Amino acid sequence: MIEGQGAGGDLVPGAMTEYLTDEWGFFIRSARELERFRSPYQAVEVHDSVAFGRLFRLDGHFMTSERDEFFYHESLVHMPGLTHPAPERALVVGGGDGGSAEELLKYPTMKSVTLCEIDLAVVDVARKHLGSVHRGALDDPRLDLRIGDGFAFVRESAERYDLLILDLTDPGGPSTLLYTPEFYRACAARLAPGGAMTLHVASPVAHPGRIRDGMAALRAAFPLVTPYLASIPLYGGMWMMACASHTLDPRTIAAREVDRRIAQRGLADLRLYNGDVHRAALALPNFVRDLVGPPR
User: Fold this and answer.
1) 3-state secondary structure at position 177
2) What is the per-residue pLDDT across 159-218, written as a single tens digit (0 to 9) for each?
3) Is the pTM of this model over 0.90?
4) Which residues are known to be catalytic?
5) String of b and e for 184-221 (b: at least 16 CB within 10 Å)?
6) How far apart are CA 176 and CA 172, in angstroms?
7) Which CATH architecture has domain 69-292?
8) Which CATH number fits domain 15-65: 2.30.140.10, 2.10.70.10, 3.40.640.10, 3.30.420.40?
């Protein structure tokens, strides 16, 4: 539904409302609706907006936009990517807009990226409307696109990956089982030695219960779980992500080393990520420390 009210109670024409909780949300005004249909899995929308440019929604929730996608995709990919000495193989579960794949393919050592997306409609919409998000990654010869269930793919695969990126919608609908200890254990079995998995968890302000449950589920599957924070305008501000691994720990590298690796690997077009951002993301406020528990 495209409706909303301004601060004075006046109707805001074309306002798309995102509800973080039943009591709290925000809106972005749609200047023009480009797509609206229901796929076999979810409701799909694409809008033009003044604030965010092309904006993609699923089941009424903001997924990505061309003007702020780098906040999310760079944070999700480069925390583990720059900690890893030389990632060669990666798997993205979800992420049909191609934004995570695009960041992974920037690495000169990357030989292949497998993208497993359950909904072909997401990929089709990205090809048609979100070129500035994937920047051609969906047609890169190193990309292996698989349309199907992510849980089944991970469980049945025999491949090992240096980086495993869970680029998912919030829990609910087709993604529900992808936030369980069972799925995380299946992902852990797909990691190569020294590999890591990352995912977004929730807002520590709006969703403290999801933070607690999510960290418990990750720690049931991985011995080393590193929570970190990112500011994502389209998601309402502060958001938590997590890096899970048997051995890879992003806390072990200094800001100067992150900057050295960015230069060495030729990652010159990053709009967000640098050494200071890497270290700052790992700095957790006290209320977040209370949510996630002691470091592991």
Assistant:
1) helix
2) 999 999 999 998 877 788 999 999 999 999 999 999 999 999 999 999 999 999 999 999
3) yes
4) 167
5) bebbbebbbeebbbbbbbbbbbbbeebbeebbebbbeb
6) 5
7) 3-Layer(aba) Sandwich (3.40)
8) 2.30.140.10
